[in-house]
Each structure stands twice: as C-alpha cells, then as structure tokens.
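Field log, afternoon session.

UNIT: design team B
ACTIVITY: writing a sequence onto a fixed backbone
BACKBONE:
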C-alpha cells in the first residue's frame, strides 16, 4: 500500500487514549486510521477520513495496538521439554535448570543462535507482538553474554544484560558477581539498554542484586528485576528503591510490596506463562490493580519456565486465572508493556505514535480471552509495514 493510506471498516478500535474514545481503553466505533510512513498520522471518525487516500477495508474487524512484550529470553539453544514433562508429573521448578540451557547455548554457533532468535521473533510477530524486549543470560561468560547481546540487537533495540541469571558452574558467587560488574558489563553494555538480575532463591540475593544493578546504572543502563518469582524476598522493594522500570514476576507479594509498587513508577510485570508452565499459583493481579499499581503482561518466553510466544494466551490467562477484566488485560499487554519499557511511542493508537497495529478476526478485543487457543491475529503492521502472518492474503 502506498503512503499515506487509510484503514476503514474497523469494528471497534482500541486506542488506549481516553481522550479519543470510551473508558480507559479509549474505544472508538466507526473509526478510521491514516498511516503515513512509520507513523499514525490521524485517528478519527470514518466519515472524516481524507477521501483521496487509498484504503484497506477491515470488514468490521477489531483493531488494537500491537502487543508490547516487555519480557522475553529469546537467545538460547536447545530445549527443556524433558524437564517440563518431569514437572508435570510432580517435580518442582528450580533456578538451576537454567544451567542446562547455558551448556547448550555455549556450544551453539552464532548462526544457530541467530536462526533460533529470528524464528522466535517471527513467532512473536505472528502472535501480534510489535515491540519486544529480550535478554542475554544463557551465556554467562564474557564472550557468550556479549555475543548473545550482539545477536539480540539484530532483532530489537530493547535488549537487556542478564549476566546475573544464575552463578554458572566452576566459579564462586563472589567472583562471579565481580565479573558481572566488571569485564562482563564492559563487554555487554554497548549492546544493552537495560540491566536485569534474577533476585530469588537459587540465584542472587538482594545485596548482590543491588551491587550489580548499581554497576549497570553507573555504566548508563536502566534497571529492571526478576523479583519474587519463587519465594517472597526483597526484590520488589529493591526495584522500587532503584526506580526500576519494572519488577517482573511478582508471584509472591506481601502488602508492603503492593503498597510500594502502587506508590512508585515501577511497573509490576506479570508473566502468567511461567505460573502456567511451572504449575504455580498466579500473582495477585487484582490486589495490585485495586491498590493502583501499573500492571504489564508479558510472555517471559524462555525454554525453562514459559516456552510460549503467545500474548493472546497471556491475556486469556490473566482474565481467567488472575481475575483481570478483558479491558485491563488488553491494556496491560499493550500500554502496560510500553510503560514497563518506559516508551510512549508504542502501545497506543494516536496521532504521532508508531504505526504498530493488529487487526483481529473478531469484532472486539474481548474475544482474545473468550476464544482461548484460537488464532485470532488477522494482520499485523509494524512501523506502518504489513508483516507476513500465517493468514496473509
Ligand atoms: O523468567 N526467572 C528466571 N529466568 C527465567 C527462567 C529461565 C529458565 O528456567 O531457563 C524466567 O522464568
Ligand atoms: Fe524471565
């Protein structure tokens, strides 16, 4: 389609801008969108669209902002289906499983890692994701972390240095923390926007996490934390203390954690794929939302605890298992993810935003939870360009 061009025949349009339509999602009916280059040039009543531009008729489909997946681990080799099968028959999930993937990742060629990352990035796009974050964390040597981030950077600007995923074999914890804060950070920082630590049982404690995140911040990276996934601990409070963009997982929260998140700019990023795949209790989304915290939903795509790229599945789990309303879940999977990445140009359909849009084979967004497991992604536009999906016409 040449530029500029319009989208018409939109059954319902989620703008995430309350000034444009109804409720917090800013829902518009009988709306049209004008795309110019990589940006949305105009959103308004269909009757007011410039009649000289070519249009795509969406035949009453819903249009939503592209999903913003603010937490994924795409650079790895191998899989852990045997570990999953053992878990489904009684084993419990532990951080140590990460080391299995570390061995496979170190043994893989750059090209093998690149192809796997590309395939997962394509899967994300087919599930309607138009912005995603991805981490290192399965290399855990200076060279392997640096190459993971080099490869990650080929696919997204939202890259995260997670050298502090677990302490690898053959080195004691203190020496490893020193390495992460020193030579590893130096080798990784130029290809990372964020720094992350797995602050939990079997990984790093709060003092180690503070030391690592502070070193990253001093090198110009922005903090985010894997916090309170496996047990209650001080990770969420540390996230708030450091003004981290996000505390991720939040599976074990007490009242003080919820209050701290609600009174901060730190987003609570919930990853229900991890609870689903580790058969754990879901996080207290309702309590977070009722307290006024900002909630994001993300896939946590990784080979151990959540091997899925499906944001529609996250929406369905959030609604069915975590008692989020369909509106709240859609917001958290789009605008919420944007907040967790401190981005204002994505997660919304407003004039000037990036033209990242998804049309659904459904009249409204509620169908994402109402029709679980059904591929409702019709077309996906990233920066104004139509991406190939399975259903491409
Ligand atoms: O987000 N929590 C730490 N990291 C991943 C799991 C990684 C793995 O098991 O390979 C997560 O769940
Ligand atoms: Fe994760």
């Amino acid at each position: 389609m040449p530029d500029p061009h319009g989208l018409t025949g939109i059954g319902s349009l989620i703008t995430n801008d309350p000034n444009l339509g109804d409720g917090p999602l800013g829902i518009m009916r009988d709306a049209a969108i004008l795309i110019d280059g990589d940006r949305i040039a105009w959103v308004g009543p269909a009757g007011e669209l410039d009649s000289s531009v070519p249009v795509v008729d969406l035949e009453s489909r819903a249009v939503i902002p592209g999903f913003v997946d603010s937490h994924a681990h795409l650079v790895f080799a191998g899989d852990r289906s045997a570990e999953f099968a053992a878990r489904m028959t009684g084993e419990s999930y532990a951080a140590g499983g990460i080391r299995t993937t570390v061995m496979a990742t170190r043994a893989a060629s750059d090209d093998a890692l690149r192809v796997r990352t590309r395939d997962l990035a394509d899967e994300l796009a087919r599930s309607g994701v138009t912005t995603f974050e991805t981490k290192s964390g399965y290399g855990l040597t200076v060279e392997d972390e640096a190459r993971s981030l080099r490869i990650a950077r080929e696919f997204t600007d939202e890259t995260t240095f997670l050298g502090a995923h677990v302490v690898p074999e053959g080195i004691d914890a203190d020496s490893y923390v020193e390495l992460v804060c020193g030579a590893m950070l130096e080798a990784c920082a130029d290809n990372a926007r964020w720094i992350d630590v797995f602050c939990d049982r079997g990984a790093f404690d709060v003092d180690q996490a503070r030391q690592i995140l502070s070193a990253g911040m001093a090198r110009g990276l922005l903090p985010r934390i894997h916090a309170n996934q496996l047990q209650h601990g001080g990770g969420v409070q540390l996230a708030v203390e450091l003004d981290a963009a996000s505390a991720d997982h939040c599976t074990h929260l007490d009242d003080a954690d919820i209050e701290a998140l609600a009174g901060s700019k730190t987003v609570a990023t919930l990853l229900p794929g991890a609870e689903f795949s580790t058969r754990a209790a879901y996080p207290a989304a309702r309590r977070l939302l009722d307290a006024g915290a900002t909630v994001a939903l993300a896939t946590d795509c990784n080979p151990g605890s959540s091997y899925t790229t499906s944001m529609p599945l996250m929406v369905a789990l959030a609604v069915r298992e975590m008692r989020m309303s369909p509106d709240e879940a859609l917001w958290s999977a789009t605008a919420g993810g944007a907040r967790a990445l401190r981005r204002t140009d994505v997660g919304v359909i407003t004039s000037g935003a990036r033209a990242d849009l998804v049309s659904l084979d459904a009249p409204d967004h509620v169908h994402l939870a109402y029709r679980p497991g059904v591929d409702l992604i019709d077309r996906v536009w990233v920066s104004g360009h139509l991406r190939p999906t399975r259903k491409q016409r």
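LOG NOTE: Residues 71, 73, 226, 300, 302 surround fe (iii) ion (ligand 2) (CB under 6 Å).
NEXT ACTIVITY: expression trials, pending approval
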